[in-house]
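User: Fold this; tokens only.

Assistant: Input:
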Amino acid sequence: MTCDDFDRLLARAAGRCELCGTPEEETPRRALVIDHFEGAGLFFVRGLICDRCNSVMARHDRSAAWGPASLPWADKARAYHLAAFEQPTPEEFEQADRYIASRRTYHVKDRAYMPVAPRKTLVVRLDRSMTEAAAKLRRHLTDRQRARLIELLSKPT
């Protein structure tokens, strides 16, 4: 995308999300993002949208499942997709549609299991010197945690 292309994209959006119409300064981050389609060897810029609508377009592209809050935007998302800034050909839209239809919606439970190494356990030997134990605890505890530990140790049983 050239600087001139970006200027035309900005002018087309006129300072608003192209999907929902929210003014740029009223979006959560006070900024619009460049939305694009990428898949099946295609890449084209669709427009400038807010973060919420970017989430809607992820559902349109089937990288996330439609939910009750996003489903009412399905028709508008489709119309926005078809009015893409970079104006793909009808054949490219067909190719994009086939790619979108072939995708399985991503679910967290589908994620491959990735074992995580457990954190190294802090071992404080109490059968050794209390000075050693205190030094080790001092290194590993925050000031607040140390204060709480002292408070608990000071309580009569």
